[in-house]
Amino acid sequence: MKKIVITGVAGFLGSHLAKDLLNEGHHVVGIDNFISGRKENLLTLSNQHFSFLELDASDQDLIHHPQLVNINEIYHLASPASPKFYQQFPFETINVNTTGTRNMLEIAKRCGAKMVYTSTSEAYGDPLRHPQSESYRGNVNTWGPRACYDEAKRMGEVLCYLYFTKHNVQIKVARIFNTYSAGLANDDGRVISNFVTQALKGQDITVYGDGKQTRSFCYVTDTIRGLKLLMEKESANGEIMNLGNPNEIPILTVAQLVKSLSNSNSSITFHPLPKDDPKVRRPVIEKAKGLLGWEPRVTLEEGLKVTIQQYKEKLNL
Ligand SMILES: NC(=O)c1ccc[n+]([C@@H]2O[C@H](COP(=O)([O-])OP(=O)(O)OC[C@H]3O[C@@H](n4cnc5c(N)ncnc54)[C@H](O)[C@@H]3O)[C@@H](O)[C@H]2O)c1
Question: I need a surface site. Which of 15, 133, 215, 229 has the fewest CB within 10 A?
Fold first, then answer.
């Protein structure tokens, strides 16, 4: 049995990962301050091997917490991830990805623990190279509403690089591309949760811009499997890796697909594109295929069908 710390455990990916690791028989110590996560997500984690610390991962005192000793693995997921939340809490987003990441790296160094840090495809900004491989350095605007998230994640990566090169911490960085499932709260503000909730409630499906901008959507089970493989594989130490589904799709097509799969009468309406919204997004996943033997297994249509069904149940429809 390993002792595994997950920051951001009350969030979408953190709660899913914790459930998986508890089912595998590990001891999970979850940390969250509920800035964007939900107490309900912890209900599914009631298990004798789960302990929860309601703490801010960027609190300087965290590294001295008596429960944060003898740790084998750390997944540092804490950070608002939806634009709705990181734009509401820009300074907290910067803190958790910088000071918070450094805290977790210090704990990893002290315990000799392995660590996975969840960075993002947003590290590529509004990319000028397409598709995006890990060697692309990105096109990020420091002077805009997304900068607090994009640049904070990039600085988190810098800290990981320093602890890998200076302190030999076994760190691995995932650049996650859009991940979805019904585990996203209906009001989380991300595209799949928005579209499915709107379609099921018969509300307008709101597309920003003309809908020609593209994204690549990965089902949650694929992303979680990738994060666990990243943790496991020695060959991934000191590496940055894209985790995402290379099936690229225009946003308008996603809206139409959601509408048809949920038999919805909703109209699709168009609204101004937010500033700095990326026009294209598609990961190159050769590195993850080669080093982890990982690639997504769930198609968008399969993932959406399950997601729609589960949202229906959540919404009592
Ligand atoms: N889901 C995606 O599509 C996606 C894509 C790219 C990157 N990521 C990254 O993966 C991680 C998890 O994303 P998610 O989708 O589960 O987001 P989420 O918002 O659902 O979960 C994040 C969790 O972190 C917690 N948190 C935030 N700041 C904290 C702090 N200072 N101390 C303790 N807890 C804190 C929140 O309360 C929340 O429970 C994030 O780091 C995110 O940037 C996710």
Answer: 133
> Any residues with Cβ below 6 Å from ligand 1, and which?
7-8, 10-14, 31-37, 56-58, 77-81, 96, 100, 118, 120, 176, 178-179
CATH of the domain at 307: 3.90.25.10
What CATH number did the domain enclosing 169 receive?
3.40.50.720
Give the Å distance between the CA of 289 and the centre of ligand 1.
Answer: 25
Which among 86, 117, 124, 149 is annotated as catalytic?
149
Cα 5 to Cα 174: distance, rounded to the nearest angstrom: 17
- Does 149 qualify as catalytic in the annotation? yes
CA distance 83 to 145: 9
Give the pTM: 0.97
How far is 86 from 272, CA to CA, in rounded Å? Answer: 20
pLDDT in tens, 244-259: 999 999 999 999 999 9
